[in-house]
What we know:
This protein is an alpha+beta fold. The chain has one helix at 51-58; strands at residues 32-36, 42-46. The chain is globular and about 30 Å long.
Amino acid sequence: MRGYTDDGATQPGPCLVNCSNNFGIYSFHDGIAMTAFADGSVRSISENMSNNVLAGLMTMAGGEVTGEY
């Protein structure tokens, strides 16, 4: 994950959700992005979510414990 700057103009950067819709996690919902998970569920991801938690959700077998987010 490289992310974007807060204005969505430059890569890499610290912003991972709703920064750019150019190959990023992006939604037209204010403050969240709707995401589909491998188990078939659909959940909202907050644009304020910690980058470490988001990375844990995207890792297939990293063993991270994310809990309820």
